[in-house]
Structure formats: C-alpha cells, structure tokens
C-alpha cells in the first residue's frame, strides 16, 4: 500500500512537470506569435512608409505640383522627404528669383549699352522697361543736375505710368521731400504706408492710391548720381528691391560714362576747333613768313640796289667834287680875269671919258669957229 502510494505520487509529480512544461511551451509560442504579429505590422507600416516615400520622391523628381503632399505623423521618413520638398521648393524660389534678377540685369545692360548717346533717351528707356519688368504702375527717374554751380539739384528726367511717358517738369533740392532725404542719406527707402496726397495712380477705372513706394539712390563710389522712385499697388519683394539697387549702380556707372563721353565730346570738339584755328593760324603764319621772306628778299635786293646806288653816288660825288674843284679853280681864274677885265674896262672908261671930254672941247671950238665965220 505504501509502495502504491509512493508510485502514485511519483506519477502525479511527473504529470505536473509535464503539464508545466507544456504550459511554458504554449506561453513561448503565444509570445512569439504576438511578436511576429507586431513585427509583421511594423514591417507593413515600414513598407507603406517606403511606398509613400517612394511616391513622394517620384513626385518630387517629376515636379508634380498637384500632388497632395501631406505630413504623416509617426513617419519620420515621410517627414524628412517632406522637409526636403519644402527646402527644395524654397531653393527653387530663390533660384527663380536669382534667375529673374540675372535676366533683368542682362536686359538692362543691353539697354544701357545701346542708349549712351543721349541722357534723356537713356532715362526714358530705363524707366519704361523697369516699370514693365517689375509689373508696377508708376516710376520716375531723377538725375543730379551738374550745370548748377555751388549747389546740387535733382531733375526729374523721365516719368512713366501705365506704359505712358509723363511730361512733368519737376526739380527737388537736397533734403526736400522723401527723394531729397534719400539723396542726402544715400540709403533706400521702402514705405507700405504712403503719406496722404503723395501720389495718385490714374487708371481706366479711376484713381487709386499706391500702397507701396520704393525710393533708391543710384550710386557709384559713394557718390549719388540720381534717384529711382517707384510706386505700386502691390508689395515689392526684397529680391526686387535688391535688383533695383544693383541696377542703380549700373545706371550710375552709365550716367557717369555718358557724362564723361559728353565732356570728352565737347573737349574733342573744342580741341578740333582749336586745331582748326591753329591750322588756320599756322597757314596764316606760313603766309606771313613767306611774305616776310619775300619782303626780306626785296629789302636785300633794294639794299643791294641802294648800295650800288650809294657806290655810284659816291663815285659821282668824287667826279662832281673833281669837277667842282675844277669849276672852282676855273671860277677863281675867271674872277681874276674878270677883275682884270674890270680894271681894263675902268681904264678904258676913263680913256673914253677923256676922249669924250676932248671931243666935246673940239666940238665947242668948232662951234665957235662956225660962229666966227
């Protein structure tokens, strides 16, 4: 009985051990099944995420703007791809802005190169194309007037609104208004709240007050050559304002070059006039020199003639002197002879007087004799 009990107890213990072992195996299997299901679910989610990421990437590569990009929570890969999409979109915007600026600068470089002969025509081309390229409504271009001594003044050279040139005579002094303030401060000014009565933009529908105003200096080497004033009904992005500032530098350089060219043209014309005058003076001097040479030759010839004449005169004077000496000697002889003749004549006269007295006495005696007879 005790043996049976002991044997039975051993059998029961074995049964319990076997039961525990089976339960343990069942638990392990259940746990494995749970982990498998979880791994399968995670794998499916990963596959879904990869498929979505692949779809996102293909959409990005094909630039599908209509694709519905949505951030999915709990999917870091999709979030990273979406962040990459946003960054790429921002870079594309920046690239488009840079391309817009580059194309604009290239366009205006061609305009600046083609219109350097006349400053007013150049300003008309600039402001007309600038208003059109920016898609704004109105613009004006002021240039520093260099013809005024001891002071500077800004002259409105060209103004455009709605693709029409506006003929406005307007001059602004430094510190006068917003344009004069920008000229003094040498810094751009951007206003989204424009003062009342500053400017109105006329359209086919009436008058509209602009909401944005950008005034930029045209500078080169820290010197302001002019001011660009632009008014718009819409906001002007920063890249457009930077484009205007860069363009202002090119315009300032062109204005300086145009003015230098005008000065050089004036100097060239003056030098040509002076050269013509010098050539005329040289020709006149050459003619004067030739006339002077001819005069000198004539003087030399006359001098030689005069010398010959003087020599002849001297010879003649010697001959005349000899003749004069002979004449004087002859005259002296003649005087002596004349004196002798006068003496003889006087003697003869005395003799004649004596003879006449004797004749008269004879006649008187004869008369007496006749009376006696």
Automatic annotation (TrEMBL):
Keyword Coiled coil: yes
Residue stretches in coiled coil: 36-97, 261-319, 345-372
Family matches, as SMART domains: GAF
Bilayer-crossing regions: none
The keyword Transferase is assigned to this record: no
Keywords from the named record: Coiled coil
UniProt-listed InterPro entries: GAF (IPR003018), GAF-like_dom_sf (IPR029016)
Occurrences of domain GAF (ranges): 118-265
Protein name per UniProt: GAF domain-containing protein
Native species: Flammeovirga pectinis
């Amino acid at each position: 009985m005790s043996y049976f009990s002991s044997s039975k107890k051993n059998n029961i213990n074995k049964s319990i051990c076997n039961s525990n072992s089976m339960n343990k195996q069942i638990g392990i299997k259940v746990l494995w099944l749970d982990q498998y299901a979880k791994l399968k679910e995670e794998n499916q989610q990963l596959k879904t995420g990869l498929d979505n990421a692949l779809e996102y990437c293909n959409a990005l590569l094909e630039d599908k703007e209509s694709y519905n990009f949505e951030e999915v929570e709990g999917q870091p890969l999709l979030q990273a791809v979406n962040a990459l999409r946003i960054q790429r979109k921002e870079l594309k915007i920046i690239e488009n802005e840079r391309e817009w600026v580059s194309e604009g600068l290239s366009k205006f470089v061609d305009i600046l190169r083609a219109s350097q002969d006349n400053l007013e025509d150049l300003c008309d081309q600039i402001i007309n194309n600038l208003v059109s390229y920016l898609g704004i409504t109105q613009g004006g271009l002021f240039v520093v007037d260099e013809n005024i001594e001891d002071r500077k003044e800004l002259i409105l050279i060209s103004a455009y609104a709605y693709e029409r040139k506006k003929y406005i005579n307007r001059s602004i002094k430094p510190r006068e208004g917003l344009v004069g303030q920008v000229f003094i401060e040498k810094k751009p000014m951007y206003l989204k709240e424009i003062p009342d009565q500053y400017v109105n933009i006329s359209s086919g529908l009436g008058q509209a007050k602009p909401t944005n105003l950008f005034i930029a200096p045209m500078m080169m080497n820290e010197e302001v050559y002019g001011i660009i004033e632009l008014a718009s009904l819409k906001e002007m992005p920063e890249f457009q304002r930077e484009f205007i500032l860069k363009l202002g530098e090119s315009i300032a350089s062109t204005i300086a070059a145009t003015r230098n060219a005008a000065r050089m043209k004036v100097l060239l014309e003056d030098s040509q006039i002076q050269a013509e005058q010098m050539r005329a003076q040289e020709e006149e001097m050459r003619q004067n020199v030739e006339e002077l040479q001819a005069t000198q030759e004539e003087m030399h010839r006359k001098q030689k003639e005069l010398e010959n004449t003087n020599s002849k005169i001297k010879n003649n004077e010697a001959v005349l002197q000899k003749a004069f000496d002979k004449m004087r000697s002859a005259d002296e002889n003649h005087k002596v002879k004349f004196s002798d003749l006068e003496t003889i004549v006087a003697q003869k006269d005395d003799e004649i007087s004596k003879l006449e007295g004797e004749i008269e006495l004879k006649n008187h005696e004869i008369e007496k004799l006749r009376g006696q007879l």
